[in-house]
């Protein structure tokens, strides 16, 4: 079931269609209220304005894209959508794996103009919801600070933090959402609210891991940051055929490491690689890596370690082609996830599942450390005790067989891991075909999150197929 069919069945979109609803005069009144642009089908800028990061969703046709330039524009868009029963979605970085930020038949609120990054003397930073991780890291580095976050330059801060926010500093400093002190949000009643532990704490709790798009449109954040430091980075490449030995050794080795060491694995049919970072001397890092190599029982074919300034280190984990200005500024792939909740009893069986579909690549990112020292119910992020996350990826370009083939292959691996690791997944790697998705993404916090969604969005203004305020949010939408 696609998004448009879902929304029509739920009564959110009148069957008359884009050309007749809302009437043209209503759109013109909205346009006059906005300080930013309004892009409608037929406008020259519309084809580009409606694009997200993933090319697979270019055929979706929003009724309008609001280029919000101030919070009043967001209020106007939400109020207009509510009056006319149109779906509305925010777009920050546009990296939604199922393309939910490109809402077919509804209003996309483009937050890219909310890109301000204001570093305060006390080390706090106020960041607009349209800012992306590359400029954030660069601005903070110039002030000698860092916000624990992801490493992909083009990812938006809003989607990252609202889903929890995993990255290479998390074992030492915690998730991105653990550094959030306040957020400004436009809720379904078109009110602007500034939420924190002291002001509307239930909504503030929900915004720390409850997923993007569920409770309103966030326009800005205030974070604590930490002092910047040099980072030792490493890469270990093992011979083909050692995937099982590497995974078996790593799942026992990583939890015993100090918080300063973060690592991840890259496994596919030809790759058995480990990489990561260490907040300390390279010599100590090298000793820890020697221990991993001993456990694997095979010497790596390549080993690299170096000390970098923090900004360069973060960029080294990113794909250069994804950076602003690069030729490959957009992409076509799909993803899904599971959580490594405990060391696998049979590592060979797990790796057999991971390698069962040749087009599927697996990224395993370590958890633990500071992440696990926050209670499971203290924030909405439920996977505090997980040892790691599995991110499963497959190309969705025509040369890869397209999106349908990619999702078929991912389902084989995802569902093959289910019996071992249960109903688990990371909400920032949304999969529209994830079985029991609400339980997988929100776990023990699901009931409370649904209650918060009902409180702030009782009419389902922000409903989408895997949204907590959707009329069918208890149903698997395959």
Structure description:
Helices cover 29% and strands 19% of the residues. The protein is an alpha+beta fold. It folds into three domains: 3-110, Uridine Diphospho-n-acetylenolpyruvylglucosamine Reductase, domain 2 (2-Layer Sandwich); 117-227 and 442-456, 2-Layer Sandwich (Uridine Diphospho-n-acetylenolpyruvylglucosamine Reductase, domain 3), CATH 3.30.465; 231-440, Vanillyl-alcohol Oxidase, Chain A, domain 3. It has a seven-stranded antiparallel beta sheet. A five-stranded antiparallel beta sheet has the order 5-6-10-8-9. A four-stranded mixed beta sheet has the order 1-2-4-3, covered by helices on one side. Helix 9 (243-253) crosses helix 10 and helix 9 (243-253) crosses helix 12 (347-354). The chain is globular. Residues 1-19, 320-328 and 472-478 have low confidence and may be disordered.
Characteristics:
478 residues, alpha+beta, Uridine Diphospho-n-acetylenolpyruvylglucosamine Reductase, domain 2, 7-stranded antiparallel sheet, 15 helices, 18 strands, globular, disordered N terminus, FAD-binding oxidoreductase, FAD-bd_PCMH
Walk me through the topology.
Blueprint: H1 3-9, H2 24-33, E1 38-39, H3 46-49, E2 64-67, H4 71-84, E3 88-91, E4 107-110, E5 117-119, E6 125-128, H5 133-142, E7 145-146, H6 157-162, H7 170-173, E8 180-186, E9 192-195, H8 201-207, E10 217-223, E11 226-227, E12 231-237, H9 243-253, E13 261-267, E14 272-278, H10 282-296, E15 302-308, H11 310-316, E16 333-340, H12 347-354, E17 361-366, E18 388-395, H13 402-421, H14 437-442, H15 446-456
Parallel strand pairs: 2-4, 3-4
Antiparallel strand pairs: 1-2, 5-6, 6-10, 7-11, 8-9, 8-10, 12-14, 12-15, 13-14, 13-17, 16-18, 17-18
Domain FAD-binding PCMH-type: 58-228
Cofactor: FAD
Protein name: FAD-binding oxidoreductase
């Amino acid at each position: 079931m696609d998004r448009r069919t879902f929304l029509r069945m739920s009564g959110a979109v009148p069957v008359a269609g884009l050309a007749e609803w809302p009437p043209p005069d209503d759109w013109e009144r909205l346009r006059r209220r906005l300080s930013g642009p309004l892009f409608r089908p037929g406008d020259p800028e519309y084809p580009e304005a409606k694009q997200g990061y993933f090319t697979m969703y270019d055929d979706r046709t929003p009724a309008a894209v609001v280029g919000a330039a101030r919070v009043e524009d967001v209020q106007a868009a939400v109020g207009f959508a509510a009056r006319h029963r149109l779906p509305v979605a925010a777009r920050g970085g546009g990296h939604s794996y199922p393309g939910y930020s490109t809402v077919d038949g509804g209003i996309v609120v483009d937050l890219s103009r909310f890109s301000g990054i204001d570093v305060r003397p006390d080390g706090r930073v106020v960041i607009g919801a349209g800012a992306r991780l590359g400029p954030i890291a660069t601005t903070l580095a110039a002030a000698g600070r860092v916000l624990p976050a992801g490493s992909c330059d083009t990812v938006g801060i809003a989607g990252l933090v609202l889903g929890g926010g995993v990255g290479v500093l998390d074992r030492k400093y915690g998730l991105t959402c653990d550094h959030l002190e306040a957020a400004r949000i436009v809720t379904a009643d078109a009110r602007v609210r500034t939420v924190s532990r002291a002001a509307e704490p239930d909504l503030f709790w929900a915004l720390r891991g409850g997923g993007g798009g569920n409770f309103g449109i966030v326009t800005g954040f205030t974070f604590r940051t930490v002092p910047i430091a040099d980072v030792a980075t490493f890469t270990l490449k093992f011979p083909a055929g050692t995937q099982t030995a590497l995974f078996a050794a790593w799942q026992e080795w990583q939890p015993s490491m100090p918080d300063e060491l973060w690592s991840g694995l890259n496994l596919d049919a030809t790759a058995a690689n480990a990489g990561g970072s260490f907040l300390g001397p390279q010599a100590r890092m090298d000793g820890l890596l020697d221990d991993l190599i001993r456990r694997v029982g095979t010497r790596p074919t390549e080993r690299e370690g170096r000390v970098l300034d923090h900004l360069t280190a973060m960029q080294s984990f990113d794909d250069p082609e994804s950076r602003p200005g690069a030729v490959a500024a957009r992409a076509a792939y799909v993803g899904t996830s599971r959580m490594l909740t405990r060391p696998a009893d049979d590592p060979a069986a797990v790796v057999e599942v991971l390698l069962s579909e040749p087009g599927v690549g697996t990224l395993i990112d370590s958890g633990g450390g500071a992440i696990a020292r926050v209670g499971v119910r203290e924030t909405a992020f439920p996977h505090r005790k997980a040892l790691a996350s599995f991110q499963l990826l497959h190309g969705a370009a025509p040369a890869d067989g397209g999106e349908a083939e990619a999702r078929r292959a991912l389902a084989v691996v995802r569902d093959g891991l289910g019996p071992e690791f249960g109903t688990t997944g990371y909400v920032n790697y949304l999969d529209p075909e994830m079985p029991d998705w609400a339980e997988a993404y929100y776990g023990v916090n699901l009931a409370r999150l649904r209650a918060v969604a009902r409180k702030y969005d009782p009419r389902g203004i922000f409903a989408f197929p895997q949204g907590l305020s959707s009329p069918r949010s208890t149903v698997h939408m395959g």
